[in-house]
Amino acid sequence: EVQLVESGGGLVRPGGSLRLSCAASGFTFNEYYMSWVRQAPGKGLEWVANIYTDGVDTDYSESVKGRFTISRDNAKNTVYLQMNSLKPEDTAVYYCAANPRGSYVFGDYDYWGQGTQVSVSS
């Protein structure tokens, strides 16, 4: 059974930091690009970041570039999202997803986690 389980969300003040984790099982993790996607209240899905299978190459949306860092540990089948300098507009449910080709099209993603809530408020 394929599973992607996110953790690490919560309530944080503007300017604060959070680190999200996503533990994967049931598929060959190191053969997949991994992505973080978010959905703000009342809005559609927004792509946040991709990381290549080797963990070296990464790609970010303009809205988070310079503040968020995606990383992965293939030995632990886990992908991370370090979020710094958080803003109220970062408030969303954050999902990790297994992305077979590094696509930016959500329909191409094979597996999704259940999401973790991040709320940024004073």
Descriptive overview:
The structure is a single chain. This protein has no helices and 11 strands. By secondary structure, it is an all-beta fold. The strands form 2 sheets. Strands 2, 4, 5, 6, 9, 10 and 11 form a 7-stranded mixed β-sheet that branches.
Topology:
Blueprint: E1 3-7, E2 10-12, E3 18-25, E4 33-39, E5 45-51, E6 58-60, E7 68-73, E8 78-83, E9 92-99, E10 111-112, E11 116-120
Parallel strand pairs: 2-11
Antiparallel strand pairs: 1-3, 3-8, 4-5, 4-9, 5-6, 7-8, 9-10, 9-11
Described by the principal axes of the CA atoms, the overall outline is: globular
**Average pLDDT, to the nearest integer?**
96
Number of helices: 0
Low-confidence stretches: none
Biggest pleated sheet: 7 strands, mixed
Order of helices and strands: EEEEEEEEEEE
What gyration radius follows from the Cα positions, in whole Å?
A: 13 Å
Q: How much strand? A: over 45%
Question: Share of helix among residues?
Answer: under 10%
Q: Give the class from helix and strand content and strand pairing.
A: mainly beta
User: Could you tell me how far the N terminus lies from the C terminus, measured between alpha carbons in angstroms?
Assistant: 40 Å
Query: How many strand elements?
Result: 11
At a glance:
The protein is mainly beta. The chain has strands spanning 3-7, 10-12, 18-25, 33-39, 45-51, 58-60, 68-73, 78-83, 92-99, 111-112, 116-120.
Keywords:
single chain; 122 residues; mainly beta; 0% helix; globular
